[in-house]
Amino acid sequence: MAQTNYDVVIIGAGISGLCAAARLVHGGYKVLVLERFRQLGGRFSTVDYKGFKLSTGANDVECNCSLEETFHLVEAEFNVRHPEPDLAYRIDGVDHVLPRQGGLRKLISLGVRNEEEEERVRLAFRRALSWEEPSPTITLRDWVAQYSDSQKLQQIFQGFAALVLAINSYEVKARTFIRFLKAMGGRVVHGYAVDGNITLVNALGAAIERLGGQIQTETEVKRILVSDDGVVQGVSFQQPGREGEVRAKAVLSSVGPRGTIRLAGEANFEKGYLKEVEMNMRPAPVITIYAAADRPLITHPGVIVLTNNTRRVCSIRSQTLTCPELAPPGKHLIESFSALGDSLGPVDFEQEVALSIMDLKEHIPGFDRHAEILQVMYHRGEWPAFHAWPGWTIAPRTPIEMLWNIGDGVNPEGWPGLESSGEGSKRVAEDVMNRIRPST
Ligand SMILES: Cc1cc2nc3c(=O)[nH]c(=O)nc-3n(C[C@H](O)[C@H](O)[C@H](O)COP(=O)(O)OP(=O)(O)OC[C@H]3O[C@@H](n4cnc5c(N)ncnc54)[C@H](O)[C@@H]3O)c2cc1C
Predict the structure, then answer these.
(1) Cα 142 to averaged position of ligand 1 atoms, centre (Å)
(2) From the CA of 238, how far away is ligand 1's center (Å)?
(3) CATH fold for domain 5-81+195-281+388-435
(4) CB-ligand 1 contact for 251 (6 Å cutoff)
(5) Which residue's CA lies nearest to atom 34 of ligand 1?
(6) pLDDT digits (tens, 9 = 90+) for 380-432
(7) I need a surface site. Which of 149, 283, 339, 376 has the fewest CB within 10 A?
(8) Which pLDDT tens digit goes with each residue over 334-357?
(9) Domain 284-379 belongs to what architecture?
(10) pTM higher than 0.90 for the full model?
(11) Is the CB of 16 under 6 A from ligand 1?
């Protein structure tokens, strides 16, 4: 590290940390990003396995939102390719491709049994989206059940919720789902990082450094330093063979609110805040399975959402139909995403994986004979789909002056995943810029 005084130190070079850093260096601030691992990206990065480029977390890259905007702001290459056609819902074994506009309407029509029921459900959504949100506690499943007793409709919304919010329709609040629909508004489209997520985060990292920011990998933050009167002072860190400290006017932490409390020390937080974090931080655990085949076992290029006749897997995809760069020549990559039966309770991991593999064998013809399972990834604890269930996040500001959380424990409601990291980090960066001036 060339210096020991910064305007802002950011803990973690995942997509939230990098988006915040990009906004701040663009605003002229002296920024240092510290990352414990050798590579950038956190849960939006790439591991190479037998020549395949597997994601460490997210696969679907949301475009046309604050995430993409951040890349353009700092002139980082956003090398994303869009599958065409994109989203399809599998109902009774048939894949129904959703139109870019009017997707919700189509889903409702696919799930109901007659026109009267369709009209009732459609009006309920229209009312919820325009002026009367569902009550804060009702789950999506119970809310939908007020307007229709169609099991198929419930299965469609179960697949939808598990895909985008990583928890089940009987766990997510209907209000959160409605806010998600509003935030996305048919505007956000998704794509795949052409050469793996690592190329996107490396491009953003390079742009940050071009603008004068510093990124230090293999540097684990050990403590967030706080003065006796509750103001952040900087951080202490450990690198291979060396320890050190840096001072900063502001610190942004992307390690999740629980991790932030550990780093800053519980004694520095009010009891009320500790309780709020305890109550709200419900990590969303998921299982992803990567498999390889020497033939295209899936022919639809976009995401296929499984609705009925599935036990755990809520979506399958083969990104290599759109980005063959992700596999060795002639090989195909398949990925599945499963929400757990109970996102809060004790988990029988082997059972969850066994159920997911049964789903894959039933939904992907030839999987049994032609697919080789490359990796089963269980994302939980400090590496979940989200640090907090969508709808359960807390505010980014902390009781410690000039210490913010960023990332999916504090992102704005209705914005899950990468787009929320883009949007949440943008809002926090603006808050920081309103509070401190860049040093000259
Ligand atoms: C399986 C899975 C599938 C997903 N699918 C999608 C999807 O398709 N679309 C979507 O939009 N979202 C998806 N998500 C969610 C998305 O990946 C995350 O919301 C997002 O990547 C979180 O980024 P982040 O920067 O907030 O956190 P992270 O990526 O976790 O970044 C935090 C960083 O901090 C570092 N760190 C931790 N402690 C320290 C320390 N003490 N010192 C220094 N560094 C530290 C970590 O190494 C990490 O790099 C998925 C997530 C998972 C797990």
Answers:
(1) 31
(2) 21
(3) FAD/NAD(P)-binding domain (3.50.50)
(4) no
(5) 12
(6) 988 999 999 999 889 999 999 999 999 999 988 877 789 999 999 999 999 99
(7) 149
(8) 999 999 989 998 889 999 999 999
(9) Alpha-Beta Complex (3.90)
(10) yes
(11) yes
